[in-house]
Amino acid sequence: MKRDQEGRVAAIFREKASEAEEYLPPDHAEVVDFLRETTDADKSSMLQSDLEMIRVYEDLTDILIGKNIVMLTDFPPAAQEKLIRRKRLRSSLSPITELLGGSDQEEEDLL
After folding, report:
1. What is the pTM of this model?
2. Per-residue pLDDT of the chain (111 residues; tens, 9 = 90+)
3. What is the CA radius of gyration of the chain?
4. 3-class DSSP state of 96
5. Residue pair 33/9 in contact by the 8 Å Cβ criterion
6. Which residues 6+ apart lie within 8 Å of 64 measured at CB?
7. Is 111 helix (H, G, I), strand (E, B) or coil?
8. Which residues contact residue 61 at a Cβ distance below 8 angstroms, ignoring those fewer than 6 apart?
9. DSSP state of 10
10. Do 87 and 106 meet the contact criterion of CB atoms below 8 Å apart?
């Protein structure tokens, strides 16, 4: 284990490493706290990445459907419903789309 300048656990090694300054058992409170903090940060990063990727997948689906590479009917019925629901939700939340009259058109484009 290695500590930072404030004396907190900064790194944990699976095997003995030259940078390791001391040994603490895996169930030691400082080790558990370090792992919990790291895990929480990783979960938060993964969640943020998931949220960003959702839009990428949504755009990719629109592109593939728009180019007739994939048809909406190629998806299982449950997926079709989710895609249409998502498209309606996005349209209802976008004042620009509503001003342009694209909310119904986007759904028709999916079909």
Report:
1. 0.49
2. 667 777 777 777 777 777 777 777 778 888 888 788 777 777 778 888 888 999 899 999 999 999 999 999 999 999 999 999 998 888 887 776 556 555 455 555 555
3. 24
4. helix
5. yes
6. 70
7. coil
8. 70, 83
9. E
10. yes
